[in-house]
Amino acid sequence: MGLFCGQINPEQVFPFPNSLSPEQTEALEMYIDPVTKFFEEVNNADKNDSMAAIEDHTFEGLKEMGAFGLQVSTEHNGLGLSNTQYARIVEIVGEYDLGIGIALGAHQSIGFKGILLFGTPEQKAKYLPKLAVGKTLAAFCLTEPSSGSDASSIRSKAVLSKDGKHYILNGSKIWISNGGIAEIFTVFAQTPVTDADGNTTDKITAFVVERGFGGVSSGPPENKMGIKCSNTAEVYFEDVKIPVENILGEVGGGFKVAMNILNNGRFGMGAALSGTMKGLIKKAVDHAANRQQFGDYIHKYGVIQEKLARMAMQQYVSECMAYMLCANMDAGSTEFQIEAAISKIYASEAAWFVADEAIQISGGMGYMRDSGLERVMRDLRIFRIFEGTNDILRLFISLTGLQNAGKHLKELQKAFKNPGGNFGTIMDIVNKRAKRMVGVSSAPSLDQYVHPSMKDSAGKTAKAIEDFGFSVEDLLIKHGKKIVDQQFLLWRLAEATIDIYGMVATLSKSSKSLSDGIEGADYEAKLCKVFVNEASTRITKNLAYLKSSTEKENIESLKDASKSVIERGSVVQRHPVGF
């Protein structure tokens, strides 16, 4: 969106994008009812959870539907779905069974995604046909005991054999989804790489590894909090001979491969979790509409009304983010990593909120296993951790955006060194800063892109974008490259980024619905207006935090408190009773 430079690219977000052709829309509609019926009548999520495995007949049914190769080309036995089509299918899966969602996602969203993105024609022809029909399963092997969020610190190592035909792989991976049942693994290992000057250093390389190569073994299934029916296990590699033709991408280019797989795989998470939230809201609504207390149905009380409305609002924001992202990916956008991270963060945290509120509305019944709500809550907890913890992703959002803004700032600095040749650019900057100093907005209007009834929200969104851009500039000028060490500030900047993306996504979607006159458009507009109003307040607070002397003192106090807790190994204060 160009957000970190205080701009957006309207053509990417207005009107709300839809990349589906009439043929793709028709094909997608044909899948909706059968997939929904399968999860309602065939799959038993509670039984899968109790067994800590997917029932055999369910597994076979998923194969028959083509669920293991949703985005694999028809040439290689897949369904050939676009990103938007894929998102709509996984939204259904997310509503009914997140455990199965993880098993399928670990297989295709990240497991063999490297072959789709970086595979040679020969690699695709060899592996995709069997993977697409579920004849073989895939797993993504990156995490190790010493490397979680810090992927670059992995220790597994692959060394080229003397004859140059194989790499010999040794190492182990932990918490690998499908790790105990997969036959094909995308594995990342350190490999010696010699540069043009003759210097040799270890760099990460990606490989396609078959269990059949020998030397590959798995530990027992992990006993997890949730997503129990998905297999999670350690995977061990002992003197595994990997043919050199099984390198994914380039030797030493494995970190890029891993990040691209994860960035590309995150887009489906927002859609899946918007489906989860739909299912939770249905259960909460059913209880609220039928439960009577104090002589009336509880949905008539303000406290319950606010809970239900906020659940619906967060679901709506998640859905708008997810499908705006998918449509732009389908339109050919290659720079979507920030948006994908935002969608994953927001949806995973919104879904947790919705699950918690669904249980609260349902009271004691919601706490019982039979309600199905506690299973969903257990399943949801992992989504803020895997495929990039939300904490690390917030830093990723800010640092990636700041890097782009830093390049822009350098270009402006060059312009000032040659004022004669860049007079127009310089005057534009001077005018913006002069207006800012006297409190006059220079934000570009979004009015022409939105429905007339949404102009107030459009104004608040434009103002937030402008203020955000100035705040980014101030941070870079003040901290320079040392901004990477200011995690308290980076966190608040990411929070503002997430809110602005939500504002733009909902503003675009609600405006299109109003303009098209579709059913529920007024409902969308109300949710958008509330979100924009509240997000605007949060953004103002978070941007003020970046330069507040009081908050600077608070940061130092929090750092000291954290240090004290670490040194003590527990809380530090003396107990109120003295012992």
Can you offer a commentary on this structure?
The chain has 579 residues and is of the alpha+beta class. The protein is built from 20 helices and 10 strands. The chain has helices spanning 10-13, 22-41, 45-51, 56-65, 83-96, 98-111, 113-118, 121-132, 254-265, 267-290, 302-330, 337-362, 364-367, 373-380, 390-417, 423-437, 455-479, 487-516, 521-545, 549-568; strands spanning 138-141, 157-160, 166-177, 184-194, 200-210, 216-218, 232-243, 247-248, 292-293, 296-297. The strands form 3 sheets. The chain has a 4-stranded mixed sheet. A hairpin with a 5-residue loop joins strand 2 (157-160) and strand 3. Helix 2 runs parallel beside helix 5 (83-96) and helix 10 (267-290) packs antiparallel against helix 11. It is globular and about 75 Å long. The chain starts with 9 loop residues before the first helix and ends in an 11-residue tail after the last helix. The model has no long low-confidence stretch (mean pLDDT 94).
The count of helical stretches stands at: 20
- Oligomer state equals single chain
The outline comes out as: globular
Question: Residue ranges: pLDDT <50 for 5 or more in a row?
Answer: none
Q: Count all strands and give the number.
A: 10
The share of residues in extended strands comes to 5-15%
Q: What pattern of helices and strands is seen along the backbone?
A: HHHHHHHHEEEEEEEEHHEEHHHHHHHHHH
Secondary structure blueprint with pairings:
Layout: H1 10-13, H2 22-41, H3 45-51, H4 56-65, H5 83-96, H6 98-111, H7 113-118, H8 121-132, E1 138-141, E2 157-160, E3 166-177, E4 184-194, E5 200-210, E6 216-218, E7 232-243, E8 247-248, H9 254-265, H10 267-290, E9 292-293, E10 296-297, H11 302-330, H12 337-362, H13 364-367, H14 373-380, H15 390-417, H16 423-437, H17 455-479, H18 487-516, H19 521-545, H20 549-568
Parallel strand pairs: 1-4
Antiparallel strand pairs: 2-3, 3-7, 4-5, 5-8, 6-7, 9-10
Helix pairs in contact: 2-5, 5-10, 10-11, 10-12, 11-12, 11-18, 11-19, 12-14, 12-15, 15-18, 17-18, 17-19, 18-19
